[in-house]
Amino acid sequence: xxxxxxxxxxxxxxxxxxxxxxxxxxxxxxxxxxxxxxxxxxxxxxxxxxxxxxxxxxxxxxxxxxxxxxxxxxxxxxxxxxxxxxxxxxxxxxxxxxxxxxxxxxxxxxxxxxxxxxxxxxxxxxxxxxxxxxxxxxxxxxxxxxx
Length: 147
Known about the structure:
Layout: H1 5-26, H2 31-42, H3 52-64, H4 87-99, H5 109-119, H6 129-146
Helix pairs in contact: 1-3, 4-6, 5-6
């Protein structure tokens, strides 16, 4: 028996909600921290209030932060070409920035300033793969100097 569209959507929603829970546990987040990050990300503290697109996008965000989850829906289009940074590079940049105490993700003003100083590019999202490597190397060296 084939599922109707509403049944499929409902089961996808539950799957995505479960993935968010699993990913937050993998990242070592407690419930309060997850709710805070979730509210910062999409403005909604409850997963049931989020749209399907917001659930999926938040899952991809958690995956970029290092969670080992499989997100079943197609990834949001972002212009991925041979010259654009890989999701692994962006995830590494975001993790290194978090280690520096910059908790606004790829949109953090301090990370943007570091990127501008290192590569001449204002926004991390517009880096090439080579430039992303330069930013990663710079952040790693900086964190080693601080130890």
